[in-house]
Each structure stands twice: as C-alpha cells, then as structure tokens.
Amino acid sequence: MSTATITWQSPSNIALIKYWGKHGNQLPNNASLSLTLNQAATTTSLSLKKKRKKAEIEVDFTFEGEKNEKFAEKIIHYLESIKNEFPYLTANKLVIESANSFPHSAGIASSASSMSALALCILSQSMIADKKEYKPEEFYQKASYYARLGSGSAARSVFPDFSVWGKSTHIKAGNDKYAIQYPNKFNSDFNDLQDSILIVNEKEKSVSSRAGHALMNHHPMAAQRYKNAESRMKDILSALTKGDWELFCSTVETEALELHALMMTSNPSFILMKPGTLEIIERVRRFRNETKIPVCFTLDAGPNVHLIYPYFEKKQVRNFIQEELLTFCTKKKVIYDSMGNGPQLRIDE
Prior knowledge:
The chain has two domains: 5-184, Ribosomal Protein S5, domain 2 (2-Layer Sandwich); 188-338, 2-Layer Sandwich (Alpha-Beta Plaits). Helices cover 37% and strands 23% of the residues. It has helices at residues 69-82, 88-91, 110-129, 136-150, 209-214, 222-242, 245-264, 275-291, 314-325; strands at residues 5-17, 22-23, 27-28, 32-49, 58-63, 66-67, 93-100, 162-165, 179-181, 194-198, 296-299, 305-309, 334-338, 344-348. Helix 3 crosses helix 4 and helix 6 runs antiparallel to helix 7 (245-264).
C-alpha cells in the first residue's frame, strides 16, 4: 500500500472548435481545439487506506470539505470501469478530496478539470502502489485517455496552452482516444490569451452535456455540422499560425453560435442563451467594430459568455467589461482568467 498522498491541480478549458456529438465509449464525432485555462482549476488528492474486502471499490469522497453522494456515485462508476487496469483500486480504500477554484455552474467545465485531476492522481498513484512506469509523454497521453472516459472535454485539460482532441485531416497526430498538445508553433500574438468569463446566470443549465451530445444522434444537420467543424479547424490553425485575429474571431464566434443553433433546432429543443447573453454579444461586436480591438466571444452549452482577447489589449477590454457589460452579469460577476500552463503535481509522504 502506498503511503503517499498524490495531489494534482488540473485546469478547465474552453473549446474554441467545439466537440458536440459522440459515439462509442466517449469518442468524438469531430475534432476539437481548446484553450487551457489558468485560474479555473480543480485540486484533487488521492491517498490509500487498508480495507478488508479486496474485490469491491471503496471510496471515501469529499468535495470542498463535505460529503457529496452524487459526485461519489459518479466517481465509483468511473473507477469500476477502469479497475482491471489498476489493481490497487480494489486492494485499498481510496480517500479522495476535491475542490474547485471557481463556483459551480459558473460557465466553466468543472467535469473537465475534475476528471482530468482524478485521472492524473490515479496514474501517479499507480506508479507507487502498482510500481508502474511511464515516460513523461506516455504519462500525459494515458492521463488524457483515462480522463476522456470520465468526461470527453477532460481529455484536453492535461496539456498547456492549446489542446486538440479528435481525428482531423489537418492535424496528423490527432486521435479520438486522447488529446494532444497543440502540435504547431502559434503566433506570439496568441501568447497568454485572456479569457474573461461573464456570469449571466448562475443556475444549473437545463440540459446536461451528456444529453446534449445525444441530441446529435438524430439531428438533421449533424452531417453538415461535422463538415463545418473540420473546415473551421483548418481556419483556426491558419489564424493561430499567421496571427490573423479577424479570422480567429470569426471562426470562434461562428462555432459558438452554431453550437447553440444546433441545440435550438434539436428535438427536444433547448434555448440556453438569455437576454443578457445576447446583449453582451451585440455590445462586444460593436466595441470591436468601433475600436478595432481583437476581442471575441465564445459560449459553452449555457448562457455565460467567455471573452477571448490578447494580453496586450487587457486594460482596454477590462475597462469595457466594467463600464458596459457588468450590468448584464448576475450580481456583476466576472471571472478573469487566462491561458494556462497545464496541471501541477504535489506528493506528500
């Protein structure tokens, strides 16, 4: 039994090219590209205790200092699916403590950060408890693979800067089973990208990501959607290489709006944007046209707005947020984040 407590802090990410629709065991129907965040992260610790019965998964789980049965059930289900690959999971009682740096339902993918942090803990503990060995590149590839089994978007959270998940004709190393760090050199304009998350509504969204993906199975526009995503992957790769902010903004915004258009035209139909969402979008576009400052919006499957902009325009954009956009945010809430360096490890004996 390992006496070490493994702790990983793993970030969330925001998809710029969206993954929407899946098949098989958490495999994407199109390739996606995401921005790894810095401040929005989950910190998860895993330690082992002795137990009597070795056949079953036994977990003592706390989230932000309190028992959470709903999360615990999801974790046990996940661990059951991978227990044959990690003998120590059934040989020991697992003590898992987890906490987020951001509020729940804040427009940030908590499943991405939480499941990637857990997958990283499981792999690190296996190197001690099961004496497994991994080279660094293999370790992160496997972490992405196992994170994906818990949450598709979590596959992208184990890498810094930009991450790509899924097969694409435009990225040779792209793989459906795990994500990769963005393989190309990107223009220095995109160093330290800023992401300000405007909280339009704090309530839990009316459709889960799992249910939303399932809606694509019979969507009349599904085939065209996947063609569009592949075409926009080419566009965003070009924009990142050349430093083309106009192409970058138009690609990112079209992806966000198409995601919501797909939900609005699915059966059943969901309208997740709120009046405040639309007001922010209109004002962002007007601000960009008037100032020529390259700031664009993206959305996940909810009403909250991510503003993406370069570091060198940070002051002007944040002034704009304070002066014009806060009024459309619940309790004037905004989370200021930026491009991140990926997960961080701590080991306590």
